[in-house]
Amino acid sequence: MPPLAAVRASNARFSPPTPPVAIFVGGTSGIGQGTAQAFARHTRGAAHIILVGRNRAAAAALFATFPRCATSKYEFVPCDASLLRNVAATTAGLLARLPRVNYLVLTCGALPNAWQVLRGARAPTAEGIPEALFAVTYYARAQFARDLLPLLRAARAAGEDAAVLTVLAAGHGGPVDFADMGMEGPWSVRTLRPTVITYMDMMVESLAALAPEVTFTHICPGIVSTPLFPGWVRPLADLLLTSIDDCGEFMLHALLMSRGGGAMRMGEHADDVGLQGYFGGDEVRERVWAHTTEVIERALAKTETVVPSESVGGQ
């Protein structure tokens, strides 16, 4: 487990020969924000950074903290990832105008209403996914990574880094119920969270099989003091938990050390978690990925109105 000082020093040595292209999905707050800030800081602004999310004002405020130089390019691309057709529109726009992507960081997620959880109620999406929490946290991430594979592979073909980091809870998975792959039965965050974690493990393994030259990492950030904690809890959380800034350094370290291709599972300090909390295998991987692609394609076949994505930002 590398200490924070060593991680910061390692990140500070990051010096790519050309400005890298990095996309942060969910990068306007929390762990995504901390990772994006660390990336901007250690590249000294010599990068093309794209934040994908819903909060334009938060993105603008974040860009104002980034260092700037002659090659700085910062963009915000709005996308409501609870609808997979919005994700498809966003990735289509990125594919049409970007020559390559070096780094893709996935932290998008959602929190269910507390009363909803207590009642075991669901918040289905317009595309038929039974719970919006799963749509954003898992299916949208899988689609972003799958759709952007050509740009990641283009980076590797040019001799540059290409890595995907998805932040959830590697090492804390649970068994998959093949009889309820869509997680449509009775649920609670406590019972279904381990299943989604295993889905994420299978996602990085499946994507690594599709693009073996790209590195895909599922990481657990630990418990981080983010804006999700209510105001009266924040002072205690700031005292006892990992800060967003420190977590961002560890997440960036994991992203930058992810070279050589393949699938990786890491803990909160960018340490290999081995087979801890692992419930995968060939059959699980094949069935989870088949289910994932089926859900995505079924959602894309729906006819609900797509919320358009646009790019704003500047040098």
Topology:
Blueprint: H1 4-12, E1 21-25, H2 30-42, E2 48-53, H3 56-63, E3 73-78, H4 84-97, E4 103-106, H5 114-119, H6 132-147, H7 149-157, E5 163-167, H8 189-210, E6 215-219, H9 234-240, H10 244-256, E7 262-266, H11 282-300, E8 312-314
Parallel strand pairs: 1-2, 1-4, 2-3, 4-5, 5-6, 6-7
Antiparallel strand pairs: 3-8
Helix pairs in contact: 1-10, 2-10, 4-6, 6-8, 6-11, 8-11
**Number of distinct beta strands:** 8
Number of helices: 11
CATH architecture: 3-Layer(aba) Sandwich
Rg over alpha carbons = 18 Å
SSE order, one letter for each helix or strand: HEHEHEHEHHHEHEHHEHE
Integer tally of domains: 1
- Unreliable stretches covering 5 or more consecutive residues: 305-315
CATH class: Alpha Beta
Strand line-up in the sheet with most strands: 7-6-5-4-1-2-3-8
CATH topology: Rossmann fold
Describe this structure in words.
By secondary structure, the protein is α/β, with parallel strands linked by helices. It has a single domain, classed as NAD(P)-binding Rossmann-like Domain (Rossmann fold, 3-Layer(aba) Sandwich). 43% of the residues lie in helices and 12% in strands. It is built from 11 helices and 8 strands. α1 (4-12) crosses α10 (244-256), α2 packs across α10 and α6 (132-147) packs parallel to α8. The relative contact order is 0.18. This is NAD(P)-binding protein.
Structure at a glance:
The protein is of the alpha/beta class and 315 residues long. The protein has a single domain (4-12, 19-301), classed as 3-Layer(aba) Sandwich (Rossmann fold).
Which key terms come to mind for this protein?
SDR_fam; 8 strands; Rossmann fold; NAD(P)-binding protein; 315 residues; Sec_Metab_Biosynth_Oxidored; NAD(P)-bd_dom_sf; alpha/beta; 8-stranded mixed β-sheet; single chain; 12% strand
